[in-house]
Design brief:
By secondary structure, the protein is an all-beta fold. The chain contains no helices and eleven strands. Strands 2, 4, 5, 6, 9, 10 and 11 form a seven-stranded mixed beta sheet that branches. The protein has a four-stranded antiparallel beta sheet with strand order 1-3-8-7, with no helix packed on it.
Length: 123
């Protein structure tokens, strides 16, 4: 299973970006998915998350500006970001709890991380 994060870039303060996290491989089910971010010299922090049932969580600093959603048919989770601020600048990572289907049809649960996508917000 691989997670491919994309959609980052350079945007001016107040602008918008949409990040995508696409999963591929022997996926039986994608359970919870989270978007994390890490700025230079800081720890990686959870920004938003969505359960397999669509329940969402946001850290206070992004509430009302970011929206996490998922398209189960495409095995993809999105993070729509509006009203971006310079302090949102970071590398954004997606992480997913995935139920993997083996060749034997047995199912196993693993956590996977995407490679990260850079978001830079200029003032």
């Amino acid at each position: 299973v691989q997670l491919q994060a994309s959609g980052g870039g350079l945007v001016q303060s107040g602008g918008s970006l949409r990040l995508s996290c696409a999963a591929s491989g022997s996926i039986f089910k994608i359970n919870g998915v989270g978007w994390y971010r890490q700025a230079p010299g800081t720890q990686r922090d959870l920004v938003a998350a969505i359960s397999d049932g669509g329940i969402t969580y946001y850290v206070d600093s992004v509430k009302g500006r970011f929206t996490i959603s998922r398209d189960n048919a495409k095995n993809t989770v999105y993070l729509q970001m509006h009203s971006l601020k310079p302090e949102d600048t970071a590398v954004y990572y997606c992480a997913a709890a995935v139920t993997v289907e083996a060749a034997s049809r047995d199912h196993f649960d693993y956590d996977f991380w995407g490679q990260g996508t850079q978001v830079t917000v200029s003032s």
